[in-house]
Amino acid sequence: MNDAERRVILVTGAGTGIGRATARAFSADGAHVLAVGRRTGPLTETAAGHPLITPLAADVTAADAPGRLVDAALERYGRLDVLVNNAGIAGGGRLTEWDEAAARRQLDTNLLAPVRLAHAAVDALAVTGGTIVNVTTSVGQRAWPGSAVYAAGKAALDSLTRSWAVELAPRGVRVVAVAPGAIDTPIDEHQGLSPQQRAAVRRWQLARTPLGRIGRPEDVAWAIRQLCDPAAGFVTGVVLPVDGAAVVA
Questions:
Q1: Rg of the chain's alpha carbons, rounded to an integer?
Q2: Which residues are catalytic?
Q3: Rounded distance, CA 185 to CA 127, Å?
Q4: What tens digit of pLDDT does each residue of 180-192 get?
């Protein structure tokens, strides 16, 4: 495969977890991958041993980020085939503990940043018949007391996935989402939970996952890659749970 034939994938939140696994999965398929994240160190680790992955440090909530990221793909490779909106932050807090600043940070990263990126990328994706993938959460489809803002933001992204799928179909752009359940990523560490708190969360998750295990980032990356395969060209508007049947239990 020469460079002109390679697809170009932009993955946000690619420094760890699902984003890292997704970047590596597409790279293994022979695609060029722009791995986006806030920290250079983890991005460098993502790219290590994967010459088709290019780290690109950026804060997806910055005003200039959407245009800069799409321009980077077009200037470097001349095309964009897939946008994976994976960057996200979690946080707790019940309604009685409302923290407006924390809620705004979550919604800006988890909901508004994907909207801005999709807006910036859609013209380039229309040229290639590309795909937008939104990474949401299976918890967005049910009650999650204590993390309601996180769940609500992800549920809104599910809704956007369905609306964009219809809106962008005439332009040849597909829009899909994957909704992970309990996955072994550093997201709980990033919330500042203690080892004891993280262990308690894992016990709670395992008790509510019928398959009886915590998912791997590679489980979600597999689903993303399959939904973006040209053979999935008639699939759009779907929100695919990758959660060990947690959402239907």
A1: 17
A2: 150
A3: 34
A4: 999 998 866 656 6
